[in-house]
Design brief:
Keywords: Cytoplasm, Exonuclease, Hydrolase, Nuclease, RNA-binding
Enzyme class: hydrolase
Largest sheet: 7 strands, mixed
Organism: Bacteroides thetaiotaomicron
Number of strands: 34
Protein name: Ribonuclease R
Helix content: 25-40%
Number of helices: 18
Subcellular location: Cytoplasm
Structural class: alpha+beta
Radius of gyration: 31 Å
Strand content: 25-35%
Strand order of the largest sheet: 14-21-20-17-16-15-22
């Protein structure tokens, strides 16, 4: 009997491979990181009973010791080698368990196995202990402390059972659903969208435990879904009552004393030009002749900071939000509605306070003089972009002389800007026509026409002038602190990739030379591709090569606009940096001293981050509406173009409505396709068939998953 047993065990010994035993050993040492383990103890705990198994284990222990992964404390006794190295950084969770740690000061990512993650969440600030690196293996660490949670609230759909519930999330970084005890449900039912806060994650448990913070409504309802998108990005979806109440107490009337302090523009021809659905008019233009060929043009901006006092409850809320968020069917304002749509808004035929940049300017766009002043205005007319455009095209309509003169000056300013090396990205926007229930009925494209460009040029001029007035100082003088809008030169590597990518279409772009050389060459490229089928694609790849514009007190100029000095001054109703600039310019005009650079740099960083988050939420809402729109068109066939290539499939943008979906790589079953990152393509291993970025392609709409905001397409071979 004993012999049989021995034989059995010997067989079992053969079955465990070296790789399997190595993994088992590593796990065992990780489970007892600070203990010294004898060989005998290891054999017993891992149930290694046969001679071959023990020999293999002894070999592996010495290999791990040679790799410096474990240390032999005394003969036959080993301990995990932590090297005492601790690091602080950011934890990045992946649903496939391949988590990583990004060190604070930069450096290569370090792998953190799921078992060693201490249930850290995505983007948490953590402390890890760093394991000794094994030969030919990636560095590895273990989370020993979670220092700061990045996010502990998640949005998803509830599934309620008899005595407990789960929140099912589409969050890609959370591999498991969140368990919710029945008493923490807050009345939620199956199919409700909810926000859940993770309260604990027990060591041995697979699922985190949470409680419902808010029920957003029934999944699929339009308002519920829009609120869910905002909550997903950590953005507020309701305006605090206390702030609304504070705004209601602000008096709307303007006192004669206040008017007496300001330059009076009430009698000068003034109008606003805005989108037809706008309610907050934060800029107006005035114009009057001074003498032959010279005009006075006023760029009048809503004087928000006159009403919103620094450090007050409204100001703190605006600082936190930093920007208004524009979803497909609603605006989530930065300021309470009473301020943005009524008191501050430059509505027609109402006296309003403004902060203005006044120019003496020629028809050729030469600025002879400029000043920044507090004013009082009275707008004569509210134009939509379409109405102003009609005047420009037909040369008839209200205030035609004034509108046409502003158009002439704007075109001259624009020409000057491009001659100086500004980059002309003129992209259309996808817009939805939506019924009263929020359902998308049609898709249309919004293009920038002359009326839009007219307003844009004067806003750019005002922003630039304000930045120059503060930033441009004599040689030995230090400029006072101001939040600038900065934009760095393109990333050289990305520029090189762009050059290689467009070469296959027969285009060229300069990758070296002066700033202006490169920007002129990019403009030349954008002109060349205009109206061609590859236009959208090359424009997208070109934009990817660019840096992102952001806010900073350290001015490096704005590359894309070709301005040495640039700031944001013209939209204080919807952007907090503009409010900061208004306050600082007022302070400096009154002879005030400079402010703390580090305080304003932190505010700049926060504003840049919030701007990015708002843009992502806006994109998610467009994506949702696209999927909703296409879900009624399942089975229909469309022509499109490959707009993105990844290792998991092809993204395809439809020509007709610019909706984007994906052909999963698993559905390309005529070959084994590999992803070629450098050339933006998938290549078939056997037949060498290539799917490249920009290729024309025909698809059928296969699936629409609203929950995941995902469209799946099936390829139609022609």
């Amino acid at each position: 009997m004993a012999k049989k047993k021995e034989k059995k065990e010997k067989k079992a010994g053969k079955r465990m491979s070296k790789k399997e035993l190595a993994a088992l050993l590593i796990d065992f040492f990780h489970a007892k990181p600070s203990e010294t383990l004898s060989m005998k103890y290891i054999f017993s705990e891992l149930h290694l009973t046969t001679h071959p198994q023990k020999m293999l284990c002894a070999d592996l222990l010495h290999d791990l010791s040679d790799d410096d992964y474990i240390s032999e404390i005394e003969k036959g006794k080993f301990r995990l080698n932590n090297h005492g190295t601790e690091m602080i950084g950011t934890f990045q969770r992946k649903s496939n368990g391949k988590n990583s740690f990004i060190p604070e000061g930069g450096g290569d990512p370090i792998f953190v196995a799921e078992r060693n993650s201490a249930h850290a969440m995505n983007n948490d600030k953590v402390k890890i202990t760093f394991y000794a690196k094994r030969k030919n293996k990636d560095a590895e660490g273990e989370v020993i402390e979670i220092l700061e949670r990045a996010n502990d609230t998640f949005v998803g759909t509830l599934e309620v059972a008899k005595s407990y519930a789960f929140l099912v999330t589409e969050n890609r970084t959370l591999a498991n659903d969140i368990f919710i005890p029945k008493e923490k449900l807050k009345g939620g039912k199956t199919g409700d969208k909810a926000i859940v806060k993770v309260t604990e994650w027990p060591d041995k448990a697979k699922n985190p435990i949470g409680q419902v913070i808010d029920i957003l409504g029934v999944a699929g309802d339009n308002t519920t879904e829009m609120h869910a998108i905002l909550a997903e990005f950590g953005l507020p979806y309701v305006y605090p009552k206390a702030v609304e109440t504070a705004a209601d107490k602000i008096p709307a009337e303007i006192t004669p004393e206040e008017i007496a302090k300001r330059e009076d523009f009430r009698k000068v021809t003034t109008f606003t030009i805005d989108p037809k659905d706008a309610k907050d008019f934060d800029d107006a233009l005035s114009i009057r002749p001074i003498k032959d060929g010279l005009w006075e043009v006023g760029v009048h901006i809503a004087d928000v900071t006159h009403y919103v006092k620094e450090g007050g409850i409204i100001d703190k809320e605006a600082e936190k939000r930093a920007t208004s968020v524009y979803l497909v069917d609603r605006t989530i304002p930065m300021l309470p509605e009473r301020l943005c749509n009524f008191i501050c808004s430059l509505r027609p035929n109402e006296e309003k306070l403004a902060f203005s940049v006044i120019f003496d300017i020629t028809e050729k766009g030469e600025v002879r003089d400029s000043r920044i002043v507090h004013t009082v205005i009275n707008s004569d007319r509210r134009f939509t972009y379409e109405e102003a455009q009609q005047i420009i095209e037909t040369k008839t309509g209200d205030f035609k002389e004034e509108v046409l003169m502003l158009d002439t000056i704007a075109k001259a300013l624009r020409e000057k800007r491009f001659a100086a090396g500004a980059i002309n990205f003129d992209r259309y926007e996808v817009k939805f026509e939506i019924d009263e229930k929020g359902k998308p009925i049609s898709v249309y494209f919004k293009e920038s026409k002359d009326a839009n460009k007219l307003v844009e040029e004067f806003m750019l001029l005002a922003n630039r002038t304000v930045a120059e007035k503060v930033g441009r100082v004599p040689k030995n003088k230090k400029a006072k602190v101001l939040p600038y809008r900065i934009h760095d030169l393109p990333d050289p590597e990305k520029l090189e990739n762009l050059s290689q990518f467009i070469a296959r279409f027969g285009y060229k772009v300069r990758t070296s030379g002066t700033k202006t050389d490169i920007s002129k060459s990019i403009n030349h490229l954008l002109d060349d591709i205009h109206g061609k089928k590859e236009e959208n694609l090359i424009e997208t790849v070109s934009i990817r090569a660019m840096q992102k514009a952001r806010y900073s007190t350290h001015n490096i100029g704005h590359y894309g606009l070709a301005f040495d000095y640039y700031t944001h001054f013209t939209s204080p109703i919807r952007r907090f940096p503009d409010m900061m600039v208004h306050r600082l310019v007022t302070k400096y005009m009154d002879g005030g001293r400079s402010v703390s650079e580090s305080k304003y740099e932190d505010l700049c960083d926060h504003s840049s981050n919030m701007e990015q988050i708002a843009a992502n939420a806006e994109r998610a809402s467009i994506k949702y509406k696209q999927v909703e729109f296409m879900s009624e068109r399942l089975g229909q066939v469309y022509d499109g173009v490959i707009s993105g290539v990844t290792e998991w499939g092809l993204y395809v943008e439809l020509n007709e409505n610019k909706c984007e979906g994906m052909v999963p790589i698993r559905d390309l079953d005529d070959d084994y396709y590999e992803f070629d990152e450098k050339n933006y393509c998938l290549r078939g291993r056997r037949k060498n068939k290539i799917y490249s970025l920009g290729d024309a392609i025909t698809i059928r709409v296969a699936r629409a998953n609203l929950e995941k905001k995902q469209l799946d397409f099936a390829l139609i071979e022609k």
